[in-house]
């Protein structure tokens, strides 16, 4: 299987690194872009080429330029009968079908954790994609972590939780770190302890048959110190703070 990237920015780089992390042969990855592609190709030992060559050599073509370039790039290049996966924010399947009418289009919403094979990606498929093509695309995203097929109307809430969510988790880790420092830990040590705690807890939950609340209660015995902390979260309406932040994210209008 060969993978082509039109665009060599942050998202394309994260995805290419994820493919290499999943042991994809660098010779099977192609990239094009006006400036960065060549040096990135040298750094990652992948192939740089012009965009049409990238398309022609690839089984899956990833669109990773800026959303406002879709119409122009769609009109200049030939994507006929290619599986095209767009990561362009806000660009719908209808937009893709209009700009690239002769392809098999997929809308994807990845997150930054794709670079280490721990991504979380929402997928929506154009109607002309058959079961075999669906399987190829799903397998591609599984190389980069998890994927879930959603209705396009659900992309906004997915984006708030999985796309913006890493920033909110980093914020929680930073808050734990600051509390550690305020109570006598050295900063790097506090950051390391907080990070490993979040990492280990997420892994425990992921490997468990229990839900988050059950595991939370298993850590917090009645009358104990953890319960005192949880009561404090409750008194400060922690769930409400998170719910409002997610709503603000979903309702944010792009400039
Ligand atoms: N960053 C994220 O976390 C994230 C998450 C989800 C979705 N996305 C989506 O991913 C897309 C890329 O975002 P980004 O953050 O990676 O942006 P970026 O870092 O600005 O990268 C944009 C890339 O497009 C390339 N480009 C410009 N004109 C081109 C052309 N005519 N042909 C081929 N490539 C061209 C640029 O090339 P040069 O570098 O050579 O100038 C650059 O590598 C956007 O549509 C965004 O909505 C990003």
TrEMBL record:
Pathway: Amino-acid biosynthesis; L-proline biosynthesis; L-proline from L-glutamate 5-semialdehyde: step 1/1. This is Pyrroline-5-carboxylate reductase. Coiled coil: none annotated. It comes from the Bacteria. It is found in: Cytoplasm. Belongs to the pyrroline-5-carboxylate reductase family. GO terms for cellular component: cytoplasm. GO terms for biological process: L-proline biosynthetic process. InterPro entries: 6-PGluconate_DH-like_C_sf (IPR008927), NAD(P)-bd_dom_sf (IPR036291), P5C_Rdtase_cat_N (IPR028939), P5CR-like_CS (IPR053790), P5CR_dimer (IPR029036), Pyrroline-COOH_reductase (IPR000304). One of its GO terms (molecular function) is pyrroline-5-carboxylate reductase activity. Catalyzes the reduction of 1-pyrroline-5-carboxylate (PCA) to L-proline. It comes from Leuconostoc pseudomesenteroides. It catalyses: L-proline + NAD(+) = (S)-1-pyrroline-5-carboxylate + NADH + 2 H(+); L-proline + NADP(+) = (S)-1-pyrroline-5-carboxylate + NADPH + 2 H(+). Keywords: Amino-acid biosynthesis, Cytoplasm, NADP, Oxidoreductase, Proline biosynthesis. Residues 3-89 form the Pyrroline-5-carboxylate reductase catalytic N-terminal domain. Its EC number is 1.5.1.2. Residues 152-252 form the Pyrroline-5-carboxylate reductase dimerisation domain. NADP(+) binds at residues 6-11, 33, 64-67.
